[in-house]
Amino acid sequence: MLVWEREEPPSRPVPAPLSRERILGAAIGLADVDGLEAVSLRKVAAVLGVGPMRLYGYIATKEELLDLMVDAVHAEIRPVGDGWREALHSLAETTRQAAHRHEWFADLIGGRPRLGPHALARGEAVLAAMGDIDLDIVVPAVDAVDAYVIGAVRREITEWRAERATGMDKRQWQATFGPYLERVFATGRFPALESVVRDGPHPDPDETFRTGLDFILDGIEARISN
Amino acid sequence: MLVWEREEPPSRPVPAPLSRERILGAAIGLADVDGLEAVSLRKVAAVLGVGPMRLYGYIATKEELLDLMVDAVHAEIRPVGDGWREALHSLAETTRQAAHRHEWFADLIGGRPRLGPHALARGEAVLAAMGDIDLDIVVPAVDAVDAYVIGAVRREITEWRAERATGMDKRQWQATFGPYLERVFATGRFPALESVVRDGPHPDPDETFRTGLDFILDGIEARISN
DNA sequence: GCTTGCATCGATACGGCGTATTTGCCTGAT
DNA sequence: ATCAGGCAAATACGCCGTATCGATGCAAGC
Prior knowledge:
The structure is a homodimer of 226-residue chains.
Chain A: H1 20-34, H2 41-47, H3 62-74, H4 84-101, H5 105-108, H6 117-129, H7 135-166, H8 170-186, H9 191-199, H10 205-224
The structure holds a DNA duplex (30 and 30 nucleotides).
């Protein structure tokens, strides 16, 4: 009768081997759920069921992990459609959507120089979608749209967090900040601001984003067909 | 003969009393010199020659200190000149200059919801300088310029830091990243990127910033005089 | 088959952080 | 003289990124 020489532990099956990808996935999962400040090497390691020091076999530093996270989001950003205007428009919109899926992206975007493979692939796709317009226009145009999207997304998510922090919806928010603004306006030092808050437009975030983007695209179009 | 009843300690004269302003000044000084990550409550307190806990008599939390820092920079940002276009242009330029004076501002801008008195005053000055254009245009226009400036400044300072981190000047930087880019391009997966890097324009930061800003201002102008 | 070297992984350790809590002192009132 | 209260300082706690060390298990040599 044969004896089995290597018994497989039945209760805990072989854990998937650690890898850069698994670490990255755990970090993104933590950030999606609990925000960027919940991403610590200790917590990431805990999610993966290993000690914190194990991670250093796959990443050199926490900064590198954050770079990987940013690059991973770039994989979700691609221009679609025909023509330069549609390309830039969809570039902006898909970036914004990616930031909505990963709020922490707004904290990191524009603040990290590293060009990972997905960021490069995004850049390549954007340039390819711009057609054969003069590079002297394409480069500044893409840069301008990128800059706008970075700022717009940052502001939007920051504001959304602030609203969420006080009460849930916009009604709650107005009830909270209303008195503060009333007191500020009562000083009479901000008449123009006061009139804007009272009588100005209060567009929703989608419209605000699109309007600003259209300004840029119109400005670019004027330059292209000068 | 009279005796003096309270002798002044001569070696250590009465230290200036602690205050929100002195704390804020120390924090900004640290950040200007050593970057935002050098701003810790312990170090700020050390600069002021007090224990860390003393600060909590003047600020509630480190976050509040960061809010104060951001608001302080807003005091340096004002539109100048006549007409809406000059107002928005100078708003963008003075913001960029403030970020050059305080690099850490680029790390915080757009990521902090709090409206301090100087931020409100800046907003008031901008609106006042916009003249009597329809609010339905002024509000999106200012928002768009703000968003663009946030992103542009962030990218510019991030890139500048990356260059400074490797070697000092641009020549050094190309020598460092050149081989990496060569290897990436050698894969043939990024032909459009490659042609841009090889044949595309390489404008200086000032020009890049102005070009993107002009796109937006042109787009706004088209909307105003539709 | 036993030992020895090495590589690998876990645990521990260090210095720093934001901040809560405790301790000690100084002042002014009783 | 005693005590109470307030304030500054010191200490402490839990967390962080990461350096270092110790144990463990496996491969190669005798």
